[in-house]
User: Which sequence fits this backbone?
């Protein structure tokens, strides 16, 4: 079974639209961490956010916001007023312990001008 | 500070050849990881290390070996390259408290 599921393989939006990337995770641990990473066309992996399982507060950073809901095992990522530079593959990841790190298959976001 | 460096950036191997992918960090983190990323896919953990002298298998260890003799270095060895090992390989490090991983730039390996 997939530990991290990103059901949206690819999303295309027009610049300035809002877009939400979905992430559903599966774990039996009570302590775990969730992450989002961005992989632009250049290929590097850029860390965006980390949440631990005890902190369900939503977070906003500029145009980015994250909605963590333990009841539905989801950790969704919203980009407000998308820009062309947001075009990338976005990965959600789960860490149950320091040696147990699982990535989703990624969502490719295309932002068109 | 260079962070996490990987060499080489690109490599083409013939079936059956061997090679070592190098990973070096100057962040003084204990935990190091090797991942592979196949085209259009997410990352899969190959091996990880919690400190010098200690390594353990991840999800997809077959065909690979690792060693960790120092905090800074975590080389990944391919002994008998196969086309199925064509992938981009990422090395990552993390501290003990945050779980946040910092990635190297990757090595693109093609086995023909």
Assistant:
């Amino acid at each position: 079974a997939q530990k991290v599921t990103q059901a949206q393989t690819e999303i295309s939006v027009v610049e300035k639209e809002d877009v939400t990337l979905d992430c559903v995770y599966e774990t039996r641990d009570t302590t775990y961490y969730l992450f989002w990473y961005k992989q632009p066309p250049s290929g590097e992996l850029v860390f965006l956010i980390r949440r631990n399982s005890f902190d369900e507060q939503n977070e906003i950073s500029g145009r980015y916001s994250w909605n963590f809901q333990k009841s539905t095992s989801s950790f969704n990522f919203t980009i407000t007023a998308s820009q062309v530079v947001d075009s990338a593959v976005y990965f959600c990841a789960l860490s149950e312990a320091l040696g147990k790190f699982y990535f989703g298959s990624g969502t490719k976001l295309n932002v068109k001008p | 500070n260079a962070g996490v460096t990987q060499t080489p950036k690109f490599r083409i191997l013939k079936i059956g050849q061997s090679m070592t992918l190098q990973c070096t960090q100057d962040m003084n983190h204990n935990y190091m990881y090797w991942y592979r990323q196949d085209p259009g896919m997410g990352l899969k953990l190959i091996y990880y290390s919690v400190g010098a002298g200690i390594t353990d298998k991840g999800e997809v260890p077959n065909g690979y070996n690792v060693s960790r003799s120092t905090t800074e270095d975590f080389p990944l060895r391919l002994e008998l390259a196969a086309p199925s090992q064509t992938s981009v390989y990422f090395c990552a490090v993390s501290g003990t408290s945050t779980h946040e991983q910092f990635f190297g730039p990757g090595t693109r390996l093609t086995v023909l």
Residues 25 and 67 of chain A are 13 Å apart (CA to CA). The longest strand of chain A covers residues 88-97.
